[in-house]
Model the fold of this input.
Amino acid sequence: MADQPKRLYRRRKGRKLLGVLGGLADFFGLDPSLMRIAYLVITFFTLVIPGFVLYLVLVFIVPVEPKAGSRKEEG
Done:
């Protein structure tokens, strides 16, 4: 059986706002707190608007992770 590709999801548990940064941290194998700090620093230095817009776009594009017991149909 082939390994499932790594998927990007918004976090369901342990999220602060909408789970985008926690999901990105999980995807890249980073600490969620470091991802949040990096996001705040980058957003501050880009005059806030681009970082805020990017976050909102990701909220609508990235799906919420499936519940632990649920199965998706394959294929």
Notes: Residues 20-61 form one domain. The mean pLDDT is 84.
